[in-house]
Design goal:
single chain, mainly alpha, Tetracycline Repressor, domain 2
Length: 198
């Protein structure tokens, strides 16, 4: 229990510092001081700063809610599922905005580390590809599953960056309105006559 408690303290302190100062500027000594532990404790628990960062990403960026949605809560109704996936995806990104900003500010993380800007979309892509394959087998869905998955994720990430990272467009629209419209347009492209049937 002590080990877990120490891990949690170090991870939380590291994430706070990485968010405030950026990855390159933060030292293991800074993290140890913030967490109230010795620097040796960081090396004992995480070995180095790179591993600590990756563990922090795993803890904070992967939403259990998103995994649960795919594991247990799909309805196999394309519109309902894609709306739910989009909403949980945006909730996850918004909750983890600070770590995404760290990676965007520190391009060496994106290149050299298994950053959330690489890892999270690739994990989500696998889940989306499997979903689209299953929906094709159930009938009525067209398109190459990997291409559908990439376009769906890219569209959602574009909405997120427009409303969160780059701040709001000069508009009265809210993010949910954009998500709803994006899903509608996406579905109309992959199901013939969708707008006539719904």
């Amino acid at each position: 229990m002590n080990k877990l408690s120490t891990d949690e303290k170090i991870l939380e302190s590291a994430m706070n510092l990485f968010s405030e100062k950026g990855y390159r500027e933060v030292t293991t000594k800074d993290i140890a001081k913030e967490a109230g532990v010795s620097e040796m404790s960081i090396f004992r628990h995480f070995h180095n700063k790179k591993n600590l960062f990756e563990r922090a990403v795993d803890k904070y960026i992967f939403s259990p809610k998103l995994r649960t949605l795919f594991d247990k809560n799909l309805k196999w109704d394309l519109k309902e599922d894609l709306l739910n996936i989009s909403r949980v995806y945006h909730e996850t990104l918004t909750k983890n905005e600070r770590i995404i900003l760290v990676c965007l500010k520190n391009t060496d993380l994106t290149v050299n580390l298994d950053s959330p800007l690489k890892k999270f979309p690739n994990e989500l892509k696998k889940l989306m590809v499997a979903y689209f394959i299953e929906m094709q087998e159930r009938g009525g869905l067209h398109g190459e599953p990997e291409l559908l998955a990439i376009n769906f994720i890219a569209g959602n990430f574009g909405i997120f960056t427009s409303f969160t990272i780059f701040e709001k467009f000069n508009t009265n629209l809210d993010v949910n309105t954009c998500i709803n419209d994006f899903v509608k347009i996406f579905i109309e492209g992959v199901i013939p006559d969708f707008k006539n049937n719904k």
